[in-house]
Design goal:
It is a single chain. The N and C termini lie far apart (54 Å). The strands form six sheets. Strands 8, 9, 12, 14, 15, 17, 18 and 19 form an eight-stranded antiparallel β-sheet that branches. A six-stranded antiparallel β-barrel has the order 22-23-27-26-25-28. The protein is built from two helices and 29 strands. The protein has 405 residues and is mostly beta strands. The protein has three domains: 54 residues, no CATH class; 205 residues, Sandwich (Jelly Rolls); 108 residues. A hairpin with a 2-residue loop joins strand 6 and strand 7.
Length: 405
C-alpha cells in the first residue's frame, strides 16, 4: 500500500489522494513532491522553516575544503605575501611557485561578494612569460582521511562538484584542476570570467577517477588547484582524466603576462555529487579548529605571555611542555618569530633569553610537544627548577607549530 497526498492549488482545491503499490508515501503541493518516505528513508525537497527561520536540508560538513571563505589567516593576518618559494597565503591555502622573475603578491582582502567577508587576491607585479616547468598555483591539499569516501582509484569513484566565486581584471578562460599527491593523475576544467573586475559565481563538475593511486590516510589525498600561470608543459586537455602533471589548458589566461593584473577567489566548496549547494558557513571557532589541525600559533596576546612550562635539567637547558590547541595531523615542526623573542623564567629570578629552541621528537606527539630550550648559563636555573617559557617583552613573539601536508 502506498499513497500520494497532494494539496491542490487550482480548481476546487483541497486534498486529493492517489493510491499505488510502490511502497512510498509522497506529500505534494500543487502536484510537486516536497517529501517522500521510502524504504531508503525520508527525502525532502527544498528546506525546512520554523517561525520564519529556514533550516538547510543539506548534510553538515559536506564541504571538503577547509577555509574556503579565506577568513582564517593565522600566519599573515591580512598582510601581503610576496614569495618565490612555496608558502601559505591564508590557512590551508598554499602557493606553489617556481621559476618566476616577477613574483606576484597574494593577500587576504575584504573585497568579497555578498555573503562573504574575505577573498584571496593575487596581483601580478610585472609582465613575463614563464617557461616550461614553472608555475604559480594557489592550492589546497586535502587530507586522505577526509576524501577516502570519494573512492578514487576504484570502480566506485564518486563525482564531485567544485563551486566558487571569482573576480579578475582579465576576462576569458581560466582553469581549476585536481590532482593526486604525486601528480600522476590530473583533471582540468575550464571556466570563463565574462566581465572584468566583477564577482561571478562558477561551478564545475568532475567525474571520479577510477585509476591511479589516491591516499586515504593522513597524507595528501587530493589537491585542488587554481592555477594563475603555468609553463606550457603543464597544459593538457580539459574534461578528461590525464596521466601526469597537468593543470591548465592552452590559451587560458596567464596572470603574469599582464603587469598589475588581478585575480580574486573565495567561497570555494568541493562536495560529492553533480549539483553545487549553497556555501557551507561553519561557525568561526569550528573553522579555526579545523585549520589548527595543520597549523597553530602561540603568542601575541601580551608582551610577557606564558605559553608553556617545564623543568630545567641543567643551568643551560630546559624541557618546556606545550599543550596543543587541537589534535594535529602529525607531530608538528617548530617555528618562531625569532628565538630571542622568548625567555625562560624562573619565579623570583631574572629570566634568561633563549638561544636555541627545538622540538624533542622522542617526547612529543600530535597533542603535546616538548620544546628543548637552551639559554646562556644561569646558575639560578639549575636542574630540577620549574621554568616558564614567556615572551621577552614583545607583542611580536610567536611560536608556531606546523603539520601541513
Amino acid at each position: 500500500m502506498a499513497i500520494t497526498i497532494n494539496a491542490k492549488t487550482s480548481g476546487a482545491g483541497g486534498l486529493e489522494t492517489t493510491a499505488d503499490n510502490t511502497g512510498n508515501i509522497n506529500i505534494q503541493s500543487g502536484g510537486s513532491t516536497v517529501m517522500s518516505v521510502t524504504s531508503s528513508g525520508v527525502a525532502v525537497t527544498g528546506s525546512f522553516s520554523q517561525n520564519g527561520a529556514v533550516y538547510s536540508t543539506q548534510p553538515s560538513f559536506r564541504n571538503l575544503i577547509i577555509n574556503g571563505d579565506m577568513r582564517i589567516d593565522q600566519r599573515n593576518a591580512g598582510s601581503a605575501v610576496t614569495s618565490a618559494t612555496n608558502v601559505y597565503l591564508t590557512d590551508r591555502w598554499q602557493l606553489q611557485i617556481s621559476g618566476t622573475t616577477n613574483t606576484p603578491s597574494f593577500q587576504q582582502v575584504t573585497d568579497a561578494p555578498t555573503g562573504f567577508q574575505y577573498s584571496l587576491k593575487a596581483t601580478s607585479n610585472g609582465s613575463e612569460t614563464i617557461a616550461a616547468n614553472q608555475a604559480v598555483t594557489p592550492r589546497q591539499r586535502l587530507e586522505g582521511f577526509n576524501v577516502a569516501h570519494l573512492l578514487y582509484g576504484t570502480a566506485n569513484a564518486k563525482t564531485i562538484t567544485v563551486s566558487f566565486w571569482v573576480k579578475s581584471s582579465l576576462t576569458g578562460t581560466w582553469n581549476v584542476s585536481v590532482s593526486n599527491d604525486n601528480f600522476t593523475r590530473g583533471y582540468i576544467k575550464e571556466y570563463t570570467v565574462s566581465s572584468a573586475n566583477t564577482w561571478e559565481y562558477k561551478t564545475v563538475t568532475i567525474p571520479g577517477d577510477t585509476s591511479g593511486t589516491w591516499n586515504i590516510n593522513n597524507t595528501t589525498g587530493l589537491i585542488l588547484m587554481f592555477p594563475v600561470d603555468t609553463g606550457t608543459d603543464l597544459n593538457g586537455a580539459a574534461n578528461t582524466w590525464l596521466a601526469g602533471n597537468y593543470r591548465t589548458t592552452a590559451g587560458s589566461n596567464r596572470l603574469l603576462g599582464t603587469s598589475g593584473a588581478t585575480f580574486y577567489v573565495t567561497g570555494v566548496q568541493l562536495e560529492v555529487g553533480t549539483t553545487a549547494t549553497d556555501f557551507e558557513n561553519l561557525p568561526y571557532d569550528v573553522e579555526l579548529a579545523r585549520c589548527q589541525r595543520y597549523f597553530q600559533s602561540f603568542g601575541g596576546s601580551n608582551v610577557a605571555e606564558t605559553v608553556g612550562q617545564g623543568t630545567s635539567f641543567s643551568t643551560t637547558n630546559t624541557y618546556v611542555l606545550i599543550h596543543l590547541l587541537q589534535t594535529m595531523r602529525s607531530v608538528p615542526s617548530l617555528g618562531y618569530s625569532a628565538v630571542g623573542d622568548w625567555r625562560l623564567h624562573y619565579p623570583g629570578v631574572t629570566g634568561q633569553e633563549a638561544t636555541v629552541m627545538a622540538i624533542s621528537t622522542n617526547d612529543s606527539n600530535n597533542t603535546k610537544v616538548i620544546v628543548n630550550t637552551t639559554t646562556a648559563t644561569n646558575a639560578s636555573m639549575g636542574g630540577g627548577k620549574c621554568i616558564q617559557l614567556t615572551a621577552d617583552s614583545t607583542i611580536s613573539a610567536r611560536l608556531t607549530f606546523s603539520a601541513e601536508l
